[in-house]
Design brief:
The chain has a single domain, classed as Beta-galactosidase, Chain A, domain 5 (Distorted Sandwich), CATH 2.70.98.10. Helix content is about 5%, strand content about 40%. Strand 9 and strand 10 form a beta hairpin. It is globular and about 50 Å long. By secondary structure, the protein is mainly beta. The N and C termini lie far apart (about 50 Å). The strands form 4 sheets. Strands 6, 12, 13, 15, 16, 17, 20 and 21 form an 8-stranded antiparallel sheet that branches. It has an 8-stranded antiparallel sheet with strand order 7-8-9-10-23-19-18-14, with no helix packed on it. Strands 1-2-3-4-5 form a 5-stranded antiparallel sheet, with no helix packed on it. Bound molecules: 6-O-phosphono-beta-D-tagatofuranose. The site of 6-O-phosphono-beta-D-tagatofuranose (TA6) has 11 residues, from strand 20 and strand 21. 6-O-phosphono-beta-D-tagatofuranose binds next to strand 20 and strand 21.
Amino acid sequence: MSAQDWILPGLARRETGENGLPRIAVNTPLAEAHLYFHGAHLTYFRPKSGPSTTPCLFMSGSSWFAAGRPIRGGIPVVFPWFGRRRDDPAAPQHGFARLREWSLRGAAPQPDGAVAVVLALESDAETRSLWPHDFRLELRVVVGNSLLVELRATNLSPSAFTFEEALHTYLAVADVRQVVVQGFHGPFADTSGGGWKIRQEAEGPVRLAAETDRIYLGHRNRIVVQDPTGKRALAVEREGSDAAVLWNPWIAKAKAMPDFGDDEWPFMLCVEAGNVADCAVTLPPGATHRLATRLLSEPLPSEGRATSRG
Ligand code: TA6
């Protein structure tokens, strides 16, 4: 490795990742992570202390790593729409930000020993052909005992625009059939099978036993995924996020996804921070909106049972 590969000597460097795609590898005494320039996609985060030092993010062994294709797993950046474009079915699912090559904006060590890396994406003719507005996106990743990911969207247009966004986090779990999810309450949109049916969550923790695809609007709670088989809990804290998404494809949908192994569905659970549907963001000219998600690896409650606290 040559000297110019170091972004932060001894802490962060450019290297060649999967399928020859360039990435930034962060390796500190606290944790390690991989951040691809393709889609500003964080694919790997492993804390080096705490209840478990196994990776906290799921990555599919069948993922594409190719121009124009989304990476399957880690934390996809969803912008400027979520899901399918109702007015343009041919437009890429979940927007174009995760399909573009981002550029390095900067990197810096933090007082607590973490390392921050910032990638950026600005509008151009291609993005304007899909979405007629000028913007700048900055993704700031802070790799420490926990993982902080911030998405800042700035309106560079002369008029306001409205967008949807999400940090589509794929949590790594040892067996999704055993997990207990705390923190989801109230009504949600059940979008499994492509529908949109409002249902009411029963009080108490959520357990999964089938394809689960839920959008909770007006939801800001801390979410904790207790993974008894993995002997840890993964907590997701959010800021600037009025919606949360819970997703596991289960058996049939896993088989239908070419970039997802048929037998991989028990090992992941998406808990996504975002602003979608009625919670979409309208940004005045020159303004910036910050969406943030923090991922923490924590011990299970002492008995390993679901706590009563929501
Ligand atoms: O976030 C849940 C969801 O909208 C699901 O409906 C499913 O489509 C998932 O995103 C994955 O989307 P992708 O385009 O990455 O295959």
